[in-house]
Amino acid sequence: MLYVLLQYDLDDIQYFTPYHQSSCTLRTATTLPIGETFTPIVVIPVSKPDEGIFTPQHLRPLIESYLQQDDVLTQSFFNTVLLHPEDRSTKFDIDISALVYLMREMDAKILILDESLKINLPSPGTVLPSLSVHTVPSGCLSDKTAGPYLARSQLFGNEIDLFPVYRLYAEYYRTFVSGVYPLNDGLGTYRVLGKVDEFGNQMIPVPSRLYTIDSEKPLAGERVGVKDIYYIKGLPTTAGSRTYTAWRGTANTTASSMVKLQNEGAEIVGKAKTVAPFSPRGDLYQSCGSSSSGPACAMAAYHWLDFTVGSDTAGSVRGPAAVAGLYGNKPTQGIINLDGLVQVLKWTDTPGIFTRSPAKFKKILDAWYSDSQANRRHNHLPKTLLVPSDDFPDMPENIRSIVVKTLRVIENTLGMKVEMINQTATHPHKHPDDGGFMTVEMFKKTIFAWQSRYLGQTILKWYGSQNEGRFPPVDEDFDKMKERQELTAEWFNGMIGRDEETCSKTISVYVDPFPLDKLPVYREEKLNNISESFIPKRKNRLFAYAPASISGAPEYVVPIGHVPFKSLVSGVEEMHPLSMSFIAYPGCDSMLLGFVNKLGQLSAGVLKDTKTGRIAF
Questions:
Q1: pLDDT tens, 270-324?
Q2: DSSP characters for 484-517?
Q3: Of 83, 79, 77, which Cα lies nearest the Cα of 44?
Q4: Cα–Cα dist 514/319, whole Å
Q5: CA 491/CA 469 separation, integer angstroms
Q6: Looking at the whole model, is its pTM more than 0.90?
Q7: What domains can be seen in the chain, in order of their start residue?
Q8: Are the CB atoms for 207 and 164 separated by under 8 Å?
Q9: Considering only CA atoms, which of 335, 418, 412 is closest in space to residue 375?
Q10: How many Cα atoms within 13 Å fall on the side-chain side of residue 263?
């Protein structure tokens, strides 16, 4: 099939429309004033009012709500308006004053009415000379089909095709590999858009939110950017490597985790980078952290994105979430099937998301994890928060005050008790560096060795076969490392504890999910070498990302404020997000989500929505 698309401007906004396949074909007995060139049109479903006649008092708020909730629809689409009933079984009149409203306030020139709608004329022969009115039979439109389309007449003019409209956003922070769109071929295939603006920025296509206005799916219309390690049918997967791209080619299946999101109604609009783009925060020269920095930076940058998907093996979602002032998570290991994505270390790989809102955070994860057998039930929240205190004395006062205030509000409002523990002193919960346990350094080396043996060697052998090259084998005792990982997981999960009523006996709190002695983090290492960090070198060697990764426990990151720093780039004081993370017993994701959601609902304002751009709050 030939896939063709049209790129155009309306009201100084760039759009594109794929027109290899129509969304709907209207068949008429008469010729409509729509030619073989494309005509912008807005489709509006209307319902029969209690008064029996549809007037401007019903139409005006409907149109205003459409324009408010949808960034794709603009005034230009109202040149041609198609009204049809939400319920096809009803017939009612449209008062002529509604037509006057469309003509005078929305600049409508052509009105197309479903045959079950009639114009209520004040007297026979009344006409609106500047508004051309036509009628079409009830056809392909579903009851609540709404939104902007392009219309084009077929050869003889009695069939009108409607094609979907996508708004194009310039991706100026360079966080995406590509913008993508669905072919709507019934097979779940996507295609790379491959368009750039005059400055070479990728263009990301977003569909109208009105297309899913009648959907009962929990994530209907939610726009998502996906880290470019997930396979999506019809798209290449780069994993940040040209060699990997050449080796794997175009995916012929979609990762089941992505299928789940699509089935819940999410709309994939692009694939995000795995290498550090520019962060939109602060001086615009910061890094968003780890390999999920593309999805994180995109979420912090663009209001037109609803959430992004990353992956977390050793902090690749949690670190960027903390740096960018976002809500992000590493779920319980095994909560979602990991087929169809590039694995780093299968023992600890997990998919995670980024959002700017605690309410949306819960909404998306509830839908994503809805049928997971690994998600345990709970009746109420735990009573204890375990907080490592090792580095508290070295924290600047402005950071420590935000952390302490947050903990006190949680204590006072949710009736929980904070228990401070020192993991570097003699303490029952201290992590031993011997006795067969896995240290942070061992964990790092295991990740690199796993990638080299089970991913890198496969690619290198293929590349060598293509280029007559030889590559050395990797020698690492993974069985021994697995034993250490399991022993460490048993220790850490034992510290948190399991409870039948609360799922997790305690919640472990880390005040620096991205180590404070590494912040701020610039994109250039030479700047990091001379930058003054928020605290000196950490005393607690058990970094926040390590225990949850090694133990398989869920960890959820939330932004709690921001603090100033003197930028080495801008030369002025900038604001940097400050975050906190919560860890629970494996399988207690639902409890953690409920906990975060409650914090977002507190009148004390513990958790708030964050903004896009330089400043998160």
A1: 999 998 788 999 999 999 988 999 999 999 999 999 999 999 999 999 999 999 9
A2: HHHHHHHHHHHHH-EETTTEESEEEEES-SS-GG
A3: 83
A4: 5
A5: 45
A6: yes
A7: 5-164 (no CATH), 168-435+482-601 (3.90.1300.10)
A8: yes
A9: 335
A10: 12
